[in-house]
Design brief:
Blueprint lengths: L27 E6 L3 H16 L3 E3 L7 E6 L4 H17 L3 E5 L5 H7 L5 E2 L5 H11 L23 E5 L1 E2 L10 H5 L3 E2 L2 H13 L4 E5 L18 H9 L5 E4 L12 H5 L5 E6 L7 H7 L5 H14 L4 E8 L6 H14 L3 E6 L17 H24 L5 E9 L4 E5 L10 E3 L11 E9 L4 E5 L2
Parallel strand pairs: 1-2, 1-3, 3-4, 4-5, 6-9, 9-10, 10-11, 11-12, 12-13, 16-18
Antiparallel strand pairs: 7-8, 14-15, 14-17, 15-16, 17-18
Helix pairs in contact: 6-7, 11-12
EC number: 2.8.4.4
Cofactor: [4Fe-4S] cluster
Subcellular location: Cytoplasm
Length: 456
């Protein structure tokens, strides 16, 4: 069985940025956060609660009284990565609490690492806190440990993930996330908006809206105020003065109603859709238990671009799915030629324990998967290079992520952090700061990145 290394996994969240100081005698908890942005949000919530109870937070195993490892269980390679992280934490620290998606399989974890102190499943915050209390009792100092004025963030302060729901109602044969995280449960509109207001008030300039199925937000409510509550939420988030970027948007028909918002610069909703198409051949989509409507998808893409010419489309695909023939793969390449997606990520299929796809016949050999992945990414790279070359000479807004001596690393509205490209400014950048939004003129393009200068 092939295993996707991290550079083939476009689901990975940015590396957590943990910085904290502790007083003498203060109990300290280390945190290792693996997997997708949704797991990163769970880590932030756990750390926020721990900080409020008087714990210090450490990114160093050696400096912690215990370590929480938030695991990923999306693929077997992700499970292997999680087991390695648990083993490293045990070797370096010895006192380890496991949570996250892989925590839904406690016997799998304890079978490999019987010395872990506790195992809890995804978004089981109270159980994680109970396990921490048992391992390292809190010892708050009422004169020094105050409830944090804002939540602990594991991303730079100028952008933040905003999780709007948990779980998923789809039954894709290659995925076990619904088994781990349950069916769709949407957060109340008001609660999401209050969190977003707090984040923006604390200096966040970009809200990255995430869930398992963002466009299904609110459809689990019995008495929902409208047919598609994501439209109302996106509209309200756009009034807060920050960029609003939508991730994991399944292409339901009502998604077309989001496009006018994206076409209006004053709405705050970026012209960016992250849509997991997964494949293009109808027979492969049927074997995946996904709607087999690739042709209509092309029509929908054309309609989106007609309504919003500046829209950026990002997607992820799976190559080497069981039964995938060379002809079916060629259909995917031809579809990509026609769709001309701006940003593309790709997995090589691998079995996941408990997934129904494991039982499908005609699994594709590893060397064929690798070859198809290489060919797919070669075509995607060529499309990206041509699209970026067309931006040379144009002006666009960028958000600054990092300022160093040599250059400033920025992102356009077409770029989500870590998974998409960057725009670099290597002259006149000394006065910039992370979170600044400035206008640049693009003067050079590469395969995935741009270079530019501040517009006069």
């Amino acid at each position: 069985m092939t295993q996707n290394p991290p550079d083939l996994r476009p689901d990975l969240a940015p590396k957590p940025r943990i910085g904290d100081t502790s007083r003498p005698g203060q109990p300290t908890i280390g945190m290792v956060s693996l997997g997708c942005p949704k797991a990163l949000v769970d880590s932030e919530r756990i750390l926020t609660r721990l900080r409020a109870e008087g714990y210090a937070i450490s990114a160093d195993y050696a400096g912690a009284d215990a370590v929480v490892v938030n695991t990923c269980g999306f693929l077997d390679s992700a499970k292997a990565e999680s087991l390695d992280a648990i083993g490293e934490a045990l070797a370096e620290n010895g006192r380890v609490i496991v949570t996250g998606c892989l925590g839904a399989e406690p016997d799998y974890i304890t079978g490999a690492h019987p010395r872990v102190l506790a195992v809890t499943g995804p978004h089981q915050y109270e159980q994680v806190l109970d396990a921490v209390h048992a391992a390292v009792p809190p010892a708050p100092d009422p004169f020094m440990d105050l409830v944090p004025a804002q939540a602990v963030s594991l991303t730079p302060r100028h952008y933040s993930y905003l999780k709007i729901s948990e779980g998923c109602n789809h039954k894709c044969k290659f995925c076990v996330i619904p088994d781990m995280r349950g069916r769709l449960v949407s957060r109340p509109h008001g609660a999401v908006l209050r969190e977003a207001e707090r984040l923006v008030g604390a200096g966040v300039r970009e809200l990255l809206v995430i869930s398992q199925d963002t466009s299904a937000y609110g459809t689990d409510w019995k008495d929902r105020p409208s047919k598609a509550p994501i439209l109302d939420l996106a509209r309200d988030l756009g009034t807060l003065g920050a960029w609003v970027r939508l991730h994991y948007v399944y292409p339901y028909p009502h998604v077309r109603d989001l496009i006018p918002l994206m076409a209006d610069p004053a709405s705050g909703v970026l012209p960016y859709l992250d849509i997991p198409f997964q494949h293009a051949h109808p027979d492969v989509l049927k074997r995946m238990a996904r709607p087999a409507a690739a042709a209509r998808t092309l029509d929908e893409i054309a309609a989106w671009r007609a309504a919003c010419p500046d829209i950026t489309l990002r997607s992820t695909f799976i190559v080497g799915y069981p039964g995938e023939t060379e002809a079916e793969f060629q259909t995917l390449l031809d579809w990509l030629d026609e769709a001309q997606l701006d940003r593309v990520g790709c997995f090589q299929y691998e079995n996941v324990t408990g997934a129904r796809a494991n039982a499908l016949p005609d699994h594709v050999p590893d060397d064929v998967k690798q070859d198809r992945w290489n060919r797919f990414m070669e075509k995607a790279q060529a499309i990206s290079e041509a699209k970026l070359a067309a931006k040379v000479g144009t002006r666009m807004q960028v958000i600054v992520d990092l300022v160093e001596d040599d250059d400033a690393t920025c992102r356009t509205t077409a770029d989500a952090p870590e998974i998409d490209g960057n725009l670099f400014i290597d002259d006149g950048h000394a006065t910039l700061h992370p979170g600044d939004v400035v206008t640049v003129e693009v003067d050079e393009a590469g395969e995935y990145d741009l270079w530019g200068r501040i517009a006069g």
